[in-house]
Amino acid sequence: MSYQALKERVCAANKEINRVQLAILTWGNASEVDREAGVFAIKPSGVDYDEMTPDDIPIISLETGEKVEGKMNPSSDTETHWHLYRVFEDIGGVVHTHSTYATAWAQAHREIPCLGTTHADTFYGSIPCTRPLTQAEIEGAYELNTGKVIAEHFEKNGLKAGELPGVLVSSHAPFTWGTNAMKAVVNGRILEEVARMASITQELNPGIGAVDQYLMDKHYLRKHGANAYYGQN
Ligand SMILES: [Zn+2]
Fold it and tell me: Is domain 4-223 given the CATH code 3.30.70.2740 in the classification?
């Protein structure tokens, strides 16, 4: 089976991470799932964005987590992506970066409260921050456990991946998702901008809290869900 179109989209999404300056060097990675085919495609490990071609993109089995096609080793974060696809059944693409402001909030172990409508247009509530991984989780199956800690946080707090397309992993960095890889990159870019605005807002007014629910509802629900009316149909 050829996964050419999937590889092309994932290659383009990884280059986009670099183009929109969400990652320096080779730090970020993007993937996209084809649920009908039972596979996902992900960035190869340690390959420069400029030199990456669709042929370099490895294909991973959704069922086993093993590589089924491609010469290159997949990203070291592959098992985190794999776990997210299995627990969040409505997502189509995942992105991980160490973008500066989002990572700063993750390092501060702080969720990002909804301080305004820029946030509410994309994230329906605070952008969550997981608990830190334990020593045993870090020394064991670290990347898989990172995915499990994200899933645990959503489950425990009754959060929906479809309403909150991103998360901060404590002492680490953000993961974002979307209906495909390119949309996951866009959500990563929005998360970074929201994190930057929140940092500046809290510096200007340290006592400011989250916006009222009705303002968040207005902005989120006019763009998402059954009664959305933003855009060109
Ligand atoms: Zn990382």
Answer: no
Strand bridging mode 93-96 / 29-34: antiparallel
Residues flanking ion ligand 1, Cβ below 5 Å: 173
Distance 229 CA to ligand 1 centre (A): 36
Q: How far is the CA of 51 from the centre of ligand 1 (A)?
A: 21
User: Per-residue pLDDT tens for 52-81?
Assistant: 999 999 999 999 999 999 999 999 999 999
Tell me how far the alpha carbon of residue 76 lies from the centroid of ligand 1, in angstroms: 9
| CA 168 to ligand 1 centroid distance, Å | 11
Confidence of residue 23 (pLDDT cuts 50, 70, 90): confident
What single-letter amino acid sits at 138? Answer: I
Helix (H), strand (E) at residue 216:
helix 213-223
Which of 108, 156, 113 shows the shortest CA–CA distance to 132? Answer: 108
The predicted model scores a pTM of 0.96
Contact 4/37 with Cβ under 8 angstroms? no
The answer, yes or no, to whether residue 149 has pLDDT greater than 80, is: yes
Which residues are designated catalytic? Answer: 121, 230
